[in-house]
Amino acid sequence: MFSSLILTAREKLLASLVTSAARRDAVLGMSTKLSSEGRVFNIRNDRSAIQVGANGTIRGELLTFGFGGRIEIGEWFYLGPMSTIWSASEVIIGDRVLVSHSVAIHDSDSHPTDPQMRFAQTKQILTSGHPRENPGVKTTPVRIGNDVWIGMGAIILKGVTIGDRAIIGARSVVKTDVPADGFVPSPTSEPNP
Predict the structure, then answer these.
(1) Cα separation, 174 vs 104, whole angstroms
(2) What whole-number distance in Å separates Cα of residue 87 and Cα of residue 68?
(3) Which among 65, 182, 84, 178 has a CA at the least distance from the CA of 124?
(4) Range 46-76 burial, b when 16+ CB lie within 10 A, else e
């Protein structure tokens, strides 16, 4: 029991350090915190490019690209472990949104589709860092409304709008808009009788 108390104290200290570091790279609302595994990668170096409202918990990763990107998240947000929100354009998320673990929300293709341009971008990232000019990456904003629940392992692709109160089933790949109160079933779900 004593060793679990020490581990808990270590985890709390590490989470506090991670949150303090993240506040240098992002605007975090009151009582918003990162867990020990949470990360903010603001490659743009513009603190205002990543904003999270009050009472959020970040256990995954928020990232803006060097050539652009903006992440704006409302209050009472939860991002599960191993989940990523990457922005080269704009990701806007409402209040009271629950994003489970291993979810990917990306507003771009991340790399050019042309193989020569893709290699040039990759070479630049590996040798001198992320490009400050868009190297031919396709981007389209993502919008997620209030009170949305995104199940584990779901993927939200560029250009998607998800309406208020929608539920996205586990392992879903969302490539078209979802209306308010909509439901995207898991690909392995049994149909309702």
Answers:
(1) 10
(2) 7
(3) 65
(4) eeebbbbbebbbbbbbbbbbbbbbbbbbbbb
Determine the average pLDDT of the residues in 146-154.
Answer: 98
Q: Which run of H or E residues covers position 39?
A: strand 39-42
Give the list of residues 6+ apart from residue 99 with CB closer than 8 angstroms, or none.
60, 77, 78, 79, 80, 83, 85, 105, 150
Residue 103 amino acid letter: V
Supply the pTM of this predicted model: 0.90
Stated as kind and residue range, the H or E segment containing 41 is strand 39-42
Identify the pLDDT of residue 190.
63
CA dist., res. 1 & res. 104, Å (int): 36
Two structure tokens written together for 10:
């270590």
**CA dist 182 → 48, 57, 58, 76, 158 (Å):** 31, 25, 25, 21, 18
Active-site entry in 101, 106, 111, 130: 111
| 72-84: pLDDT as tens digits | 999 999 999 999 9
Tell me, yes or no, if 130 is annotated catalytic. no
Contact status, residue 70 vs residue 91, Cβ threshold 8 Å: yes
